[in-house]
Amino acid sequence: MNQADEDEYRQFVAVRLEPLRRTAYLLCRDWHTADDLVSITIGKLYRHWRRVRAAENVDAYVRGMLTNAWLDERRRPWRRERATDELPEQAEVDLPRMDLVDRAALMKLLQELPPRRRAVIVLRFYCDLSVEETAHALGISTGTVKSQASRGLDTLRALAQAPSRRTSEEWA
Questions:
Q1: Distance of CA 163 to CAs 81, 91, 108, Å?
Q2: Is the pLDDT of residue 52 over 70?
């Protein structure tokens, strides 16, 4: 950004900082979050100043950026957490120990899956990656991760039940 553009940007922000902050407060009803939203918006505004100043109504464009920043913040999972005075009781779960035979069977079942499904299952459930992290690692969309994980788990369940059915039918 050249000096003239930066001066124009600084002047725009100086004049509209308080109105942006008030608008952000009206959206989120919290001054700290409002300040964060304004900071995010001003940062994005700086990066895209040339495009923004070419807009027909710059104020409306910036308000739209602020609103989108607020909506993005509301979608974040940590925003849904609430502080409490008491910690919840911890459930004691007695997980069955998987012996070597079960592990070998699981490895055989995993080999039956197509490569992408196997990769999704391993990254999601063994490496405990989120849907987004798995999508990023594999270079695919989050929807693909979800569908591949669902289909992979369905296939694993079907494959795991198939030998037990055969065994029970053989004994009958």
A1: 43, 33, 12
A2: yes
